[in-house]
Amino acid sequence: MKTQQIEIAEAWTNDYLDLYNFAGQLGDLEWQNEILSNLKVAKIEIQKEVYAKKREDLWQKFDFINQELLALYQEIHQTNLENEVEKLQNKVWELKLQRILISKEIYS
Question: What superkingdom heads the lineage (predicted)?
Fold first, then answer.
């Protein structure tokens, strides 16, 4: 998580520094001052981006688990072996627990 946060922070800062330099080349002091103001509140903006990325990753995991559950349900309906059904149901249970944990993270 820390490396992802660092990558986002570096990318965000570099983008704004590039804009600052470009505004300087254009001689647009007002735009430069606006960019400086944004750089001063960089920590807040970076945290917003990190949070958004984390939520996106969690939703992808959630969707992946849903796909796995669908596949397991299909297997359960196609098999006639009782011990195989039990194994598949255990996998379903584990995935449902993972999905609950991810949901809690998404909405916390």
Answer: Bacteria
